[in-house]
Specification:
Order of helices and strands: HHHEHEHEEHEHHHEE
Distance between the termini: 24 Å
Radius of gyration: 17 Å
Number of helices: 9
Helix content: 40-55%
Strand order of the largest sheet: 3-2-1-4-5-7-6
Largest sheet: 7 strands, mixed
Strand content: 15-25%
Length: 243
């Protein structure tokens, strides 16, 4: 069971409502700030996710916690004819819609406001489902994963890109220092929401990764679960499928 970390510790709202409020507040500068925080390496990771999806020649693709649509836009280069970007933050989706319009991809990508733990799609619907840096924001990780399993087609591919903690010295110590001290400071300097990037750091450190997340995926019912650490383990790509 994953530890639940919430953005606003003095708020009575549930995690889902707090996460929605937080991403709405930082949506305007989220893309630029993320490039700074990750030193641009996140683009390389996303391209690897796209290649894993492309290898399956999907038609219908779902990108959960799509945010401003970075991954959905990249997946428009695959065989996909229909890509849905799902997110609970209207603010993030509005930024994404503008980017999609600029690239003239409205005929392929549809941005939808919705809850990943209660999706309006039938069973066995999507050939591929992705979640990029969003799975740790689920209010109930197990419920969200079970819902993803439900709408994934048998033999379809599920790909997660999420933060993780390096296991080896000195990368582990350097990552912990950066996450706890530098990342929240950058967030405070450049974001109007002073706690947002503190939450993103805290939630990353608390979230299960590696074999722990693999075992959660298997418990839910996913098969062929594989994890692939990226850049000394500061992020991990997971792939899984369905019987």
């Amino acid at each position: 069971m994953s530890q639940q970390v919430k953005p606003y510790k003095d708020s009575d709202l549930g995690k889902k409502e707090q996460v929605t409020q937080m991403f709405d507040s930082i949506s305007g500068n989220y893309d630029g700030l993320n490039r700074v925080i990750s030193l641009g390496i996140d683009v390389k990771w996303r391209k690897k996710v796209v290649q894993l999806v492309a290898d399956k020649n999907p038609t219908n693709v779902l990108d959960i916690a799509t945010g401003t649509g970075d991954l959905a836009i990249l997946m428009a280069k695959t065989s996909a004819k229909n890509i849905i970007g799902l997110d609970i933050s209207a603010g993030m989706l509005e930024v994404g819609k503008k980017k999609i319009a600029e690239k003239k991809l409205e005929h392929i990508i549809e941005m939808v406001i919705g809850d990943s733990e209660n999706m309006p799609y039938p069973d066995d619907y999507f050939d591929a489902i992705t979640v990029s840096f969003g799975i740790r924001n689920f209010e109930s990780l197990e419920k969200g994963l079970a819902e993803i399993l439900r709408v994934l087609k048998p033999n379809g591919i599920f790909v997660i890109l999420e933060t993780s903690v390096p296991a080896k010295t000195p990368f582990k110590q350097g990552y912990n220092f950066y996450s706890k001290s530098i990342l929240p400071l950058i967030g405070k300097l450049f974001s109007k929401d002073n706690v947002a990037y503190g939450y993103l750091s805290e939630s990353a450190l608390a979230f299960p990764y590696g074999e722990e997340l693999n075992n959660i995926l298997r418990k839910i019912g996913f098969i062929d679960v594989v994890d692939m650490p990226q850049t000394y383990g500061v992020a991990t790509i997971y792939t899984a499928s369905k019987k």
